[in-house]
From TrEMBL:
InterPro entries cross-referenced by the UniProt entry: DEAD/DEAH_box_helicase_dom (IPR011545), DNA_helicase_ATP-dep_RecQ (IPR004589), DNA_helicase_ATP-dep_RecQ_bac (IPR006293), Helicase_ATP-bd (IPR014001), Helicase_C-like (IPR001650), HRDC-like_sf (IPR010997), HRDC_dom (IPR002121), HRDC_dom_sf (IPR044876)
SMART domains in alphabetical order: DEXDc, HELICc, HRDC, RQC
GO biological process: DNA recombination; DNA repair; DNA replication; SOS response
Cellular component, GO, one term: replisome
Domain Helicase C-terminal: 215-368
Record's keyword terms, sorted: ATP-binding, DNA damage, DNA recombination, DNA repair, DNA-binding, Helicase, Hydrolase, Isomerase, Metal-binding, Nucleotide-binding, Zinc
Chain ranges of the HRDC domain: 516-591
Annotated protein name in UniProt: DNA helicase RecQ
One GO MF term: ATP binding
Amino acid sequence: MITAKTTLNLLKTHFGYSSFRPQQESIINDILSGKDVMTIMPTGGGKSICFQLPALALSGTTIVISPLIALMKDQVDSLLANGISASYYNSSQESYIQNETLKKLQAGELKLLYVAPESLQNLIPHFASIKISLIAVDEAHCISSWGHDFRPAYTKLGHLKKQFPNTSIAAFTATADSATQQDIVTQLNIPEAEVHLSSFDRKNLYLEVRPGNNRIDQILKYLDSRPDESGIIYCLSRKSTEKLASKLNSNGFKAKAYHAGLSADERSRIQEDFINDRTPIIAATIAFGMGIDKSNVRWVIHYNLPKNIEGYYQEIGRGGRDGLPADNLLFYSYADVVMLRKFAKGSSNEEYQIAKLERMQQFAEALSCRRIALLNYFGEHFTENCENCDICTSPPNYFDGTVLTKKVCSAVSRLDEQEATGMVIDVLRGAQNAQVLEKGYQNIKTYGTVKDTSWVDLQQYVIQMINQGILEIRFHENGRLVLTPLANKVLFKDKKVQLAILPKLEDKIEEKVITSKAPSNLFQKLRELRLVIAKEEKVPAYIIFSDASLKDMEKKLPKSKADFKQIQGAGKVKTDKYGSRFMGVISRHQA
């Protein structure tokens, strides 16, 4: 029997942590007991450990299905650095490397094997003669057409449960709404899976939205206060990435463009330079980033509006993976909305994509805490202001909107939660159009109760209610509005609601400038040593130690091996390999 003491010992020895993060232990215990699981855990929440640790505890090999070569390489490099036998298999490798991996697999020498979904069928025959301890499906949202990174090869993974009925299947993703979550479970044939929904709240991420005028000038000012920091700027078009990278380089910043129009070798080289801190800034299309495990990205900028909140959330999640503060800046203009609508036009799920885009637009226009809006989108009903977004730090003026909110919620209820926002507004304003009259909605009690408020203003108030988690849009059910548990508190328990006074068109949003605190002298010295070791071992610097680990060294000033083992992320292997060199830097700094 695998005890809690055993799993904690594995956690400390191999990963350098003395305790589990929220949800990790219960997920691991479910896997160790033979259950299928589906886990939604935000980027930086520690989902990899949820399948890597069971791989160590169980006999046999864990198969990890992963969508990108960069992700596989990062994960395997990190595992090897922690003294764990792992490898990966994909179509980019030469045949002799693939054969070496297969020999290790057959000999039982691998605890984890990462494989691309497209290469999986080639490996199935080899699985017959080995013991498979677990099948982990990473980035599982790729299996769903409702998801934002749909990969056709993922849809074939449903056969795995039939082929290996006695092996646990564990699905993991950072971003999935309710429709995508259900689709993952259905397509993987794991209807009895234990579902673990971790909090989507990344408290270390600062959220900010600015008007999209003079974007390049704003970015140059923004970066002036962030020297020596790694960051990503997401753009809608290839041309934008190249133009922006050129502008940054001409202003003294070191940046490269990344997009699908570059050759595979060029993309790989640019990505490697970013991961290894040789290029601190990447201007990229959304083709960049999924699965990159770089922990010290300190800021993410969206040059254009993302097409949905799932994509936005995943992209901002690439910052601050080490738990230290990271800033996120989104530029918003209606021109981006028009362009994204054109992109969606004619697609097989056009209406669904447009609905998701409108929700992204509502987030950008939010007049209440952005974190509340983000968390409520993912079904996490959060009501306390975060104090770490632009709205919380520079709040608008509010009025008591309880009565108005009750009227809106009552209308949604009397329409049996079957109508979209537009119809709800029409009913509240007493519209006499054909759709309202044909359905007999002029006879319900809330018809015309908000007729003195303009259609546009009422729409904005409803958007605020959605962002505050009082109402929810069911995108996969024709965009109908439904009441949340918070709405019931407003209707029946007189919970007060504050709504923001709508700004006039001529009002401008004051630009907020955040200056980064300069890193300490010791932290810089530790970073320099980390870079030297990374070059010696030909791995990214963060694989040696994350920024969070260096900050912990700076705080605790370890003097002995026992002290060093208490550093966050310093397990037995890393303490033995690197401890004396880092403690030497600390000792010389204190002398």
